[in-house]
Amino acid sequence: MENKTTQKLKGQVALVTGASSGIGAGVAKALAAEGAKVVVNYASSLKGAQHTVDEIKAAGGEAIAIKADVSNEAEVLSMFKEMYDTFGTIDILVNNAGLQKDAKFVDMTLDEWNTVLGINLTGQFLCAREAAKEFIRRGVVPERSKAAGKIICMSSVHEIIPWAGHVNYAASKGGVMLLMKSIAQELAQYKIRVNSIAPGAIKTPINNEAWETPEAEKKLLKLIPYNRVGETSDIGAAAVWLASDESDYVHGITLIVDGGMTLYPGFQDNG
Ligand code: NAD
């Protein structure tokens, strides 16, 4: 555990959606290490969520797990209520929950489309709306942060890079980009900061077939000029910075954390 006097998020309350695994778990632990009290949201894996909570507590932090499907309005409302009953308010929302349901475009079912848009985009809308209500109600509390609240949307390099075979996912992340920017434009007047993180390839269960064998990892590395697959801690560090006052003048941007994947490495040798 870090020196408590230097913790960047001391006393602030953070909700991280989809924090029972992968990037969400990494972000939850990184925010907790900086002194935030963390709500670890999960949709189905209580075991995963409990593991994240246990790791945070073992490191001297504070966390609770709350179940909610972020695409379900009633469950989102009840999650926010439970969070307020426990921690009183919210300072940081990390809209991280997301999934893929891949299919060739002509074979994609409406259910595959709606499920991905429902969780990856509508889920971010519902949680951001509820957090924004509380940020506006409470306003700035100078001893906590210069901002009234911070919203961090987990986007993807696929808010920029088209992705054949994953059109529902790419459409959801393209949607997150303008959801984030439009909310940022509307909420700046309340001193609410809104930004996104666009991870490249990070080692998590969502994409394990892309890196779990040496052959797969070698193929993946052709897309990553920096020549390593990302870790959840890379995204945790970015989230801490965007949540902290160190980035107080950063608003409405997507922070790309991808080892250069969006540099079009296919053009490295003259295209
Ligand atoms: P992951 O599968 O480990 O995590 C996704 C989490 O979202 C899981 O904990 C899952 O239970 C949760 N979730 C799914 N549906 C939910 C729902 N309805 N309500 C609440 N939670 C739900 O994968 P990950 O890689 O950690 O993904 C986290 C985020 O990062 C996603 O938004 C994903 O699109 C994004 N992302 C990941 C990568 C990568 O390379 N891993 C790259 C770019 C973006």
Automatic annotation (TrEMBL):
Pfam families xrefs: adh_short_C2
Domain Ketoreductase per the UniProt entry, residue ranges: 12-205
GO molecular function annotations of the record: oxidoreductase activity
Alphabetical list of SUPFAM superfamilies matching this protein: NAD(P)-binding Rossmann-fold domains
Keywords: Oxidoreductase
PANTHER family registered for this protein in UniProt: OXIDOREDUCTASE, SHORT-CHAIN DEHYDROGENASE/REDUCTASE FAMILY (AFU_ORTHOLOGUE AFUA_5G02870), SHORT-CHAIN DEHYDROGENASE_REDUCTASE FAMILY PROTEIN
Membership in a protein family: Belongs to the short-chain dehydrogenases/reductases (SDR) family.
Protein's name according to its UniProt entry: SDR family oxidoreductase
Protein source organism: Rhodocytophaga rosea
Lineage of source species: Bacteria, Pseudomonadati, Bacteroidota, Cytophagia, Cytophagales
